[in-house]
UniProtKB/TrEMBL annotation:
This is Amino acid permease. Pfam families: AA_permease. Residues 1-20 are annotated as: Disordered. The chain crosses the membrane at residues 36-53, 59-79, 116-139, 145-163, 175-197, 217-242, 263-282, 302-322, 358-377, 383-408, 428-445, 451-471. Residues 35-452 form the Amino acid permease/ SLC12A domain. InterPro entries: AA-permease/SLC12A_dom (IPR004841). It is found in: Cell membrane. It comes from Gulosibacter faecalis. It is a multi-pass membrane protein. Keywords: Amino-acid transport, Cell membrane, Membrane, Transmembrane, Transmembrane helix, Transport.
Length: 504
């Protein structure tokens, strides 16, 4: 259960409690515990792991295991901060509401729209690899001109999966994620069996010794280790996906903490476990950076049927990731529209309580994947640039969550003290993780393709700033900013009064 409200605490700001959305139909709480658990897993296992791990292995060698472990550990603390914040106020529908309530209307605008953009870009990357890699691997005779057509079909299917009720989305994502889990567990079991029997392939004998025998654990040196952070970061985008389900989750006080606390197990099993097996069955030098290592390992084992099955699983995984992205973007735009940070047309719900106009907006944006494929930017250059932009934008969102948490602890110490799901090491870890994000920015300067993404990303924030300059002049936004300032000032007074009374 959530913490009990402090009797002296002010009511939430206009953006969290008295917003225009109160007079409109609400999203329906139809996602059950099993949906939330599998959405949390499915959001974190997608194209970045199945496709991107080939490149991370090629640039870092076995040290890629440490890369995934470090990133996963850091993002666990982001999730714990988000979990404590979301459960502190039942009025929060997602973390854009949360950042807006704590930091001000500007934060809701920049966080919400950037998160929408994050998932649009991620879904574009997913559609690109589905059309140009996975489908082509299943049907290699397809002509080049068919790739944009395949992308159009994929986009239509994804929109169709999200138009029914939110429960239908939950069921779809549940089974998508289940396929991924079964596939990874099967890969680990099959890989361990190959290692134990000492299977011989054209690349040599399967053995755990490959993890240190082929040039050592840090076989590509320190800069190779650093370069892996560029690609591996993208594997974790979507880890915060459960934060967009808050308004449609049954019993969030129980289900959200359960989903967040499962993250360490997911990282160890799905990321570390699968990569240990992959690099033991074959030496890391045998993997092609532009293809999925999950498919390559079965090809090398002489099991083309198994490789085809894995390819179908990987295709399903990419569909799942894009499906989750379309869901989260539609809910974020819906929330922005109810707060007048997006056109009101996107605040309308269908008879089934689905924000279909927001869904169609995302569908239109996904057409950019078709353009990229028309110009021949497939799994290499286009994928690297798109995933870099996505990773950087997600880092902004994660940073906003951490900054909100730091302000929350300063302005609402009574709520933190009463929290039943407090962030561990909450005084220092937000600063440690923010410093780590600074390191990631430096790491992104190390490769030509990621540098293009690093240079292109500020264009998005410049466009957002132009939109915000117009928005902040509206009477409603002026009123919201004034109310937030007054609300924050009252919170500071109450926080000091509570600290004196508690002796903190």
């Amino acid at each position: 259960m959530t913490s009990q409200p402090n009797p002296t605490a002010p009511t939430p700001t206009v953006r969290a409690s008295a917003s225009p959305h109160d007079a409109q139909p609400h999203l329906k709480r139809a996602l059950q515990s099993r949906h939330i658990q599998l959405i949390a897993i499915g959001g974190a296992i997608g194209t970045g792991l199945f496709m991107g791990s080939g490149k991370t292995i090629s640039v870092a060698g076995p040290s890629v295991l440490l890369v995934y472990l470090i990133i996963g550990g850091m993002l666990y603390f982001v999730m714990r901060a988000m979990g404590e914040l979301l459960l502190s106020r039942k009025s929060y529908r997602n973390f854009a509401d949360m950042t807006g309530d704590i930091l001000g209307p500007w934060a809701a605008y920049f966080t919400g729209w950037t998160y929408w953009f994050c998932w649009v870009v991620t879904a574009v990357a997913d559609v690109i690899v589905i059309a140009s890699v996975y489908v082509v691997h299943l049907a290699p005779a397809l002509p080049e001109w068919s790739l944009p057509v395949i992308a159009l079909v994929v986009i239509a299917i994804l929109i169709g999966l999200n138009l029914p009720t939110v429960r239908a989305f939950g069921e779809t994502e549940f089974w998508f994620a289940m396929v991924k889990i079964i596939a990874i567990v099967a890969l680990i079991v099959a890989g361990v069996a190959l290692i134990l029997v000492g299977y011989e392939s054209e690349h040599g004998r399967a053995t755990f010794a490959h993890l240190w025998a082929d040039g050592g654990f840090f076989s590509t040196g320190f800069m190779g280790f650093v370069a892996a952070f560029q690609i591996a970061t993208f594997a974790f985008v979507g880890i915060e996906l459960v934060g967009t389900t808050a308004a449609e989750t049954k019993d969030p006080e129980h289900n959200l903490p359960k989903a967040v606390n499962s993250i360490p197990v997911r990282i160890l099993l799905f990321y570390i476990g699968s990569l240990v097996v992959l690099m033991s069955v074959m030496p890391w030098t045998a993997y092609d950076a532009d293809n999925s290592p999950f498919i390559q390992v079965f090809d090398a084992a002489g099991l083309p049927a198994a490789a085809a099955i894995v390819n179908l699983v990987v295709l399903t995984s990419a569909m799942s990731s894009a499906n989750s992205g379309i869901y989260s973007t539609s809910r974020m735009v819906y929330g922005l529209a109810t707060e007048r940070d997006a056109p009101s047309v996107f605040a309308r719900l269908s008879r089934r309580k689905v924000p279909q106009n927001a869904l169609f907006l995302t569908g239109v944006m996904l057409l950019s994947s078709v353009v990229l494929l028309v110009f021949g930017l497939g799994e290499s250059t286009g994928f690297a640039i798109v995933t870099t932009v996505s990773s950087l934008c997600f880092m902004f969102v994660w940073s906003m969550i951490l900054i909100s948490y730091l302000v929350y602890r300063r302005r609402r110490p009574q709520e933190h003290a009463a929290s039943t799901f407090p962030m561990p090491f909450g005084r220092i870890m937000p600063w440690v993780v923010l410093a780590f994000f600074g390191f990631l920015l430096w790491a992104f300067t190390g490769d030509a393709d990621t540098r293009i993404g690093l240079v292109a990303t500020p264009v998005w924030f410049a466009l957002l700033a132009v939109g915000y300059l117009g928005l902040r002049r509206t009477p409603a936004h002026r009123r919201a900013r004034a109310e937030h300032r007054a609300f924050a000032a009252r919170e500071v007074v109450l926080a000091e009064r509570w600290r004196r009374g508690s002796g903190e």
